[in-house]
Amino acid sequence: MSTATSIRPRTRSAAAKDERHPQRWLAWAFLAPTVVGMGLFTLLPIVASLALAFFRWDIISPPTFVGFDNFAEVVQDPTVRVSFLNTIMFVIVAVALQLGVALALAIMVQEKLPAWLRVFFRSAFFFPLILSAASVSIFMRYLFNEQFGVVNWLLSFVGIPAVPWLTTPGGSAAVVILVYVWQNFGFSFLLFIGGLASIPNETYEAAALDGATGLRKHLHVTLPLLSPTTLVASVMAIINALQVFDQPYVLTRGGPGDSTRTAVMVIFESAFQRLEFGQASAIGVILTIIILAITAAQLRLSKRFVFYQ
User: Is residue 278 domain-shared with residue 134, that is, in the same domain?
Assistant: First the structure.
């Protein structure tokens, strides 16, 4: 009597699982450098900075645990308070200008210009963002120089006397904001261009039938439908502006006085000029908490003011 031994065929799911197994490991192999890099250069410094905020350390001496003393000292420091106030005022003005200019130019480019010119202006407006902020600021220092700057030279043709741009509190703050907005509005511009392109033409046609044209069209159609893009642009602009450093440091060194000194400048000066790394970390922690609080408030308020199609 012969016996037939039947071999159970492998199921398709098991075979597919084995086929995906090498692909899964290949995916992890590609992700590993990024994950390790983020851990070493992002997460580890954050944890180290948070821990260092509770120590007094000047590189030379061993770290000494001081609890919340660093936080108490920086809160009572008038320079730190002024720097945070300057930063908040800078954010309010710079972000409003950045988003306003970007939105106005995006609407104009999207509606008034042909396709080939849109491509040109997208590149032209984004170009300043890829330049070194320090290099741009050095160049702008010469442009706004009171004695031989190009700006005052041009103003002299219309009878305006030389303006002390970088030696008065108001002038230096205006230059810092102007340079910052010029270099950063291109990113917001691209976001708004993408948002405008996603609005269907049928929506504008229906609004036109109801009599919404010109400014009314943008107030009642464009802005509500662009609110998700505006949320993203505003969150990123505020986070970036709260960390401003290059422009005020290179243009004015925080002066005259402390009129343009920002929070990140105080962190830099505490850490690398006075070697007070504990206090620098404490200021950094406070700034991080402020950034998280403002971002959370924006996302919370977005439930009321953001309209999704």
Answer: yes
How crowded is residue 203: how many other Cβ atoms within 10 Å of its Cβ? 14
Same domain, 92 and 61: no
- How much is the pTM? 0.86
Is 12 a domain residue?
A: no
pLDDT tens digits, residue range 260-309?
A: 999 999 999 999 999 999 999 999 999 999 999 999 999 898 888 887 76
Is residue 155 domain-shared with residue 252, that is, in the same domain? Answer: yes
CA distance 86 to 252: 14
Q: Could you give the percent of the chain with pLDDT greater than 70?
A: 92
Compute the mean pLDDT over every residue in the chain, rounded to the nearest whole number: 88
Which phi-psi region, left, alpha or beta, contains residue 254 (left: φ > 0; alpha: ψ -120 to 50)? left
Q: How many helices (H) and strands (E) does the chain have?
A: 15, 2
Burial of 112 from C-beta contacts in 10 A (0-12 / 13-18 / 19+): exposed
